[in-house]
Write a structure and sequence with these properties.
Blueprint lengths: L9 H14 L3 H32 L1 H9 L1
Helix pairs in contact: 1-2
Length: about 70
């Protein structure tokens, strides 16, 4: 496990503390959860973009014909 020191603006820290209290978890756990959610979402978005790009690449002719109509 890695230890990092992070400077968090007061307003964001207050929101983070409130969220942690609401979820009955520590601020540290809230940070880890939020970071994990962001990284997971980014990975999912990249996979969706790659799949969409592949569909467009595989169906270029069809999309060009549709654009002409």
């Amino acid at each position: 496990m890695t230890t990092r020191s992070v400077r968090i603006p007061d307003e964001l820290d207050a929101k983070l503390a409130a969220m942690a209290a609401e979820d009955h978890i520590s601020v540290n756990s809230a940070i880890i959860r939020a970071l994990d959610e962001v990284l997971t979402r980014r990975s999912q978005e990249a996979a969706i973009t790659a799949a969409a790009d592949q569909v467009f690449a595989d169906r270029t002719e069809l999309f060009n014909r549709l654009a002409d109509t």
